[in-house]
Specification:
This protein is of the alpha+beta class. The chain folds into 2 domains: 98 residues, Immunoglobulin-like (Sandwich); 141 residues, C8orf32 fold (Roll). Helices cover 20% and strands 39% of the residues. It contains 5 helices and 15 strands. It has a 5-stranded antiparallel sheet, with no helix packed on it. The protein has a 4-stranded antiparallel sheet with strand order 5-6-2-14, with no helix packed on it. Strand 5 and strand 6 form a beta hairpin. The longest helix has 15 residues. The protein is globular, with a radius of gyration of 18 Å.
């Protein structure tokens, strides 16, 4: 499958900041032709690329001066055959623990009551189906500080909220689970997207309770415990305001079908 993705960000920098971008496609089994341009008032900025876990690529800018910041990223990806690496044992420990936005310890009684006796593919399908049926997808309905418990109480949210609740339920049922930020061909309205991944049958499989895009077309950007590890832009030491954003993601030809119940790995 050939996929094309792009992101355009416009920000106002009121005071010099240290900036980290996470918009590039992660290292993986594909050939990538890509470009990244970052300017401040029309002047090109240099960066350092840092490799994070699971192929995540971070672009670090030690000091961005005040001015108008523009980020343009574009990539063309073609899948290539490659062996799936064996997941590290530490991942099966790290992604079972509660985290900032996935309070699996607080949701354990509900999860164990709702999904008692289910394992493997049946458990993934049941959790995703429950979250899909019980949450409304409402843009702008949640706050950046909301976690899985707040989402459950509100019964609405956006993709990261769906992913956080899915992850919390799975961890509460003793299934390692994590969050991946992705480009999502077929998503409408188009934006950065977030999905859960669950460790079942020796592999990590994508779980998307929003059901807004086919999982096999997704392009991984970053992976972590929850949204705290996968933010597309992080600034420290100054003032930065996101003024505008445009995200593009599409495949050549028709989008693949997805029953949202079968096991699907994210590449």
């Amino acid at each position: 499958m050939h996929r094309t993705v792009a992101a355009h960000l416009e920000c106002d920098v009121a005071e010099p900041v240290r900036l980290v971008l996470s918009v590039a496609a992660a290292h993986g089994p594909h050939r990538v032709d890509e470009s990244l341009t970052v300017t401040i008032d029309g002047r090109t900025l240099a960066w350092d690329e840092i490799d994070d876990e699971h192929g995540t690529r971070l672009h670090l800018f030690c000091q961005v001066p005040a001015g108008s910041l523009v980020v343009d990223y574009a990539a063309s990806l073609t899948a290539t055959p490659a062996a799936t690496p064996d997941p590290a044992a530490v991942e099966q420990v790290r992604y079972l623990r509660p985290s900032r936005y996935c309070e699996s310890d607080r949701l354990s009684p509900l999860a164990r009551a709702e999904f008692s006796g289910l394992t493997g593919t049946d458990l993934l399908a049941a959790v995703a189906g429950w979250v899909h049926a019980n949450l409304g997808y409402v843009p702008g309905s949640s706050r950046p500080i909301d976690g899985a418990v707040a989402t459950l109480l509100a019964r609405q949210g956006v993709c990261r909220d769906f992913a956080h609740l899915t992850i919390a339920f799975l961890r509460a049922c003793d299934v390692p689970a994590r969050l991946a930020s992705v480009y999502a061909p077929g998503l409408s309205p188009m934006d950065f997207h977030a999905v859960a991944e669950a460790f079942v049958d020796g592999r990590w499989h994508a779980v998307d309770a929003t059901r807004l895009a086919p999982r096999s077309s997704l392009v991984r950007i970053a992976t972590g415990r929850d949204a705290a590890d996968t933010a597309f832009i992080t600034s420290t030491g100054g003032l930065l305001e996101l003024r505008g954003m445009e995200v593009v993601a599409y495949t050549d030809g028709d989008l693949p079908r997805d029953d949202h119940e079968s096991l699907t790995e994210l590449h």
